[in-house]
Amino acid sequence: MSTPARILVVEDELHLAEGLLFNLQAEGYQVALAGDGETALSLLEQAPAFQAVLLDVMLPGKDGFAVASELRAAGNYVPVLMLTARGRPEDILNGLEAGADDYLAKPFDLSILLARLHVLLRRMHWQQTRSAPEQAADPADPPTAYHFAGRTIDFALLELEAKGQRIRLTLMEADFLRYLSEHPFRIIPRKELLERVWRVHEDTDTRAIDNFVVRLRRYIEDEPATPVYLKTVRGVGYRFLPAGE
Hints:
Blueprint lengths: L5 E5 L3 H13 L3 E5 L2 H10 L5 E5 L7 H10 L6 E5 L4 H10 L3 E4 L4 H22 L13 E4 L2 E4 L4 E4 L2 E4 L2 H12 L4 E3 H7 L11 H13 L9 E4 L3 E4 L5
Parallel strand pairs: 1-2, 1-3, 3-4, 4-5
Antiparallel strand pairs: 6-7, 7-8, 8-9, 10-12, 11-12
Helix pairs in contact: 2-3, 4-8
């Protein structure tokens, strides 16, 4: 029998935290609670590995954005599902920009939260399974790696090899790069990226996605300020040119 996944719930509203604890344990998960950002970071650093984090945005002290950013800066890429009372696309994208892998606006239906959590855990399990050397590839599966201009995106290991460095990716960064690799040369509107990668369907003029692209350019471009692989099409979106301009 496989070991139950360990989930960290970071939520300062006690009734909600206890409700999540009860329901997640009923689903067979091992669960730990943290009521603030500092405690969460300490647990994630010292405790045995967690397989996912449910992270509220509005926390005393360090908020959820800061917690996610510090996790990623420290090289911790545990899947993060951000819980936010701020349902605006701008806030959602700011969470994803901070390093979250998915979001869920409050109030939420428990079944939706469980489904989102299951997807994150399944994706991480798939990545780990596909990264095993002895694992045979299924021809029907999407490619596990993409090569362009001397760079390699390893979707199984969640890594990007570029400019002599290996860079860890979040699930969301890997999803974004996969979408680009599946649609090279085509101008991809921001709205399409919001809907297909971030699953944000509301009409919005947010520029938070641009900040996400700026970070990816630091990974793949020789001169991020003058990109040749990931180009901005002013007023429309982006275009991925695997061979450069």
